[in-house]
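Quick illustration for those who missed Monday's session on complexes.
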Amino acid sequence: MTKKLFIRTFGCQMNEYDSGKMADLLQSTNNFVRTDSPDNADVVILNTCSIREKAEDKVFSDLGRLNELKQSRPNLIIAVGGCVASQEGESIIERAPYVDLVFGPQTLHRLPELIASREATGLPQIDISFPEIEKFDALPTPEANGPTAFVSIMEGCSKYCTFCVVPYTRGEEFSRPFIDILKEISELVKQGVKEVTLLGQNVNAWQNTDEHGNDLDFAWLIEQTHNIIGLERIRFTTSHPLEFNDNLIEAFGRFPKLMNQVHLPVQSGSDKVLGQMKRGYTAKQYLEIIKKLKEVCPTISITSDFIVGFPGETEEDFQKTLDLIDLVNFDGSYAFIYSPRPGTPAAKLLDNVPEEIKKERLTRLLKKTDSFNIKYSQDMVGTVQHVLVDGFSKRHTDQLRGKTTNNRVVNFAGNPRLIGQIVPIKITSIAHFSLRGEIQINT
Ligand code: SAH
Ligand code: F3S
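Prediction with S-adenosyl-L-homocysteine bound:
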């Protein structure tokens, strides 16, 4: 009988990608099929995130519920993967002894062996090591799931921003060989994929050397990706201002398949705070990148991540962040209240911004970025956008859904045969953070 696998994913797109890989792998090795409820699953995997405290708390409350399920179904295998697993390791089993497997982002390819060992020995299995090199080689050929796909091109992060757990949970930066990446993309394109998003915690830190020992950078990889016939759109996330070199900026002018959208987290507009975060750039340097990007690609839509309430952040520092938002004109953004993470250098600093002030700053910041987001959307009403149709609308299942070049969701009425095609859509109105439109005939 086919066994069922339930995966709950927390956190970033890297985790979404990893969950997909776990499902593909267990399907090919153990014939598992994915189910959408833990109630009828034989194996439940929580693919966890430890970027902020809240994300971590959710994992343990979920585990409590799974324990109840296991009381009635003792053969249920409960696995904890991802960044909480990587950080907590054995202590997960100490806190939740009913957990069967603990594995990290770099050992997900060993899941079949871990399951087999658990079944053979009856003992919990833990593997949170970092053998990056073998991970991608051990995974099955990717299977396309619609016209868009993510392709992981590098792993980990070596930036060690003082607030961030990623370098500890995912390990140091490791770039996949370009041959493997281009092969994976070509494979996906053969299966009908039109758009790829190149993924990495620090995607523009990607580097390789060619057979003559020459350095290859991320802009070079974009050029090679651009040359793949049948592929129509390229995006990437998440990039870091430090490696956002002129080659990469110019790529936005040179390669029409590279979409006019970039997520480039700045975190703060205050040089004092940026220094304490060890981001490695000043507000002025960040603005210089933005200026050049807008020169090369005037329609580019820029989004960012912000942290408010970093230790020692004054009202004056925060005001500098608001001023920077005005200067860049971000097209919406993500903002988070600073959350001290165990083991990071910033956790040793006095977390001295009162909670109400953190919340108030978050509200003020989001009000600003949301208003810019709405303004961008309003300006798009009446224009014709090229929309890659990727499926059905989430809310109105009789409608189709797609994305504009600048990464906005558009819902519209149309024939399902259009899924997978790029269609001209006239934007008619805005709805929350998405747009509504209608197919433009005779353009
Ligand atoms: N390069 C990565 C960054 C991962 S973390 C990526 O974008 O995928 C994503 C965002 O979470 C960061 O940009 C930062 O704004 C936020 N973040 C990271 N650590 C945090 C912490 N300790 N407290 C609050 N926000 C944090
Ligand atoms: Fe984290 Fe900074 Fe790397 S935010 S993922 S350490 S660039």
